[in-house]
Write a structure and sequence with these properties.
The protein is an alpha+beta fold and 112 residues long. The protein is built from two helices and five strands. Strands 3-4-2-1-5 form a five-stranded mixed β-sheet, covered by helices on one side. Helix 1 runs antiparallel to helix 2. The chain is elongated, with a radius of gyration of 14 Å. The mean pLDDT is 96.
């Protein structure tokens, strides 16, 4: 099962996405659930790197993209916080669709 957790620390203004596990819907390389979950993750990770290059973050993002265990953590500057949160929220919508359509393969913990 793919487990997806979104977290926002309002005090430190840190936004986090954690994705672990494998869907197991099909063999490696043919699993459409894992492919879908991965592209959403990679989109957020790429956004984090773009935001860093544009000096929109307080510090370098933490991006770890290991097979079956990935995490993206960013701390945006105040003026870019809304943009960053929106980007993560759009990815959350994608994960919500996956979790609703394939609940046996995807478990989602959204922003609170």
């Amino acid at each position: 099962m793919v487990k997806v957790i979104f977290n926002e620390d309002k005090e430190s203004k840190t936004i986090r996405l954690n994705v672990t596990g494998h869907a197991g819907q099909a063999e490696s390389g043919k699993d459409i659930i894992c492919a879908s979950a991965s592209i959403l993750l990679y989109t957020v990770a790429q956004y984090a790197m773009f935001a860093y290059e544009k000096h929109h973050l307080k510090k370098k993002p933490m991006v770890a993209l290991d097979d079956g265990n990935a995490e993206v953590i960013i701390t945006p500057k105040t003026e870019y916080y809304g943009e960053a949160l929106h980007t993560f929220f759009v990815a959350q919508i994608g994960y919500t669709l996956l979790a609703r359509n394939y609940p046996q393969f995807v478990e989602l913990t959204p922003f609170e």
